[in-house]
Amino acid sequence: MSFIILKWFFILLIYASCTAIGSTNTFGCTIDSIYQFGDSISDTGNLNILAPNVASTKLPYGESYPGYPTGRWSNGRLIIDYATNFYGLQPLSHFLSQTPPSKSGINFAVAGATAIDTSILASNGINAPTLPGLSTQINWFKTFVDSYCPNKTDCRDKLKNSLIFFGEIGGNDINYGIISNKTQAELTALLPTIIEAIVQKVEVLIKLGATKFVVPGNFPIGCIAAGLSVFGGNLYDAWGCNAAANDLAINQNIQLISAIKALEIKYFPYVKINYLDYYSGFKNLFAPYSGFSKDNLFKACCGTGDYNVSSPRFCGGEGVPVCAEPDKYINWDGIHLTQEAYYGIFRFVEPIISSTLGCFT
User: Fold this and answer.
1) Is 40 among the residues known to form the active site?
2) Considering 166, 209, 275, 332, which has the largest number of Cβ atoms within 10 A of its Cβ?
3) Residue 333 catalytic?
4) pTM to 2 decimals?
């Protein structure tokens, strides 16, 4: 089975009542805006502008919300969409759009983005598409800040009620490594460089005046259809996920938690940085009460082949079938999740987001 096309385009790997933007909501917290960084888990349209023929520009992407493709790599909403709705904000404008920036914030995420610069990945023998990665997204934010608040004092005042949603990012660094035939040991050795890239960029934003951060970890990649298809080995956990792939994600998340907590201590008490446990949030979707079909826990709703994920007949291609009930599926296209799965993960991590914003103080 060939996954070359996936390498370049596709591994890019609630409502509560709130009051108006900038006001104190029913949880007692105040939030003016959210700034999102990351990859296809969060991209709401930036890659579509850079590459207008990618799969997310075509139906069935967006079929459940808003009814047409928007650049979201799902059938509908993403975690960031549920977050903005929950806190009473308008949907974020994506940075490369021609529309004026939303007062609720900006989405800088780009599908396919990596935490490590692609030149460094290449020096490690990992081939990755040249897309705006984390360094570029930070530079975009700096450009925005230069016009939004010309001096540091002004920035700290304007950003004090803003949330930085930093990721998920770094998953694609691993994905591209898998496709580049790197061993488990080689990928494990890459993890500190991924974590260092993330922490360095968070610190850049702290120095620009941001004070509230949530930093999601990686998903259990051994439970995602593409991970089950391409990751080697035959050791599976009790759920049926690839154990080796999940061990890699766990290792990555443990290192991330340690690094961001050390950074928070460095800037205590002026900065709050919380880890978002996407790994456990995903595993929680397997619970009997979640509503997902036990027969389709690992199959993609849209696609063909093993676990309904294959190349070149990827979701969005001509004649590629789509399931009738996407809300019964966790996997959307074999790499990304359905909006119902993203909703479940948001519900799982929302208390941590609210705590970061001071909602329960």
Assistant:
1) yes
2) 332
3) yes
4) 0.91
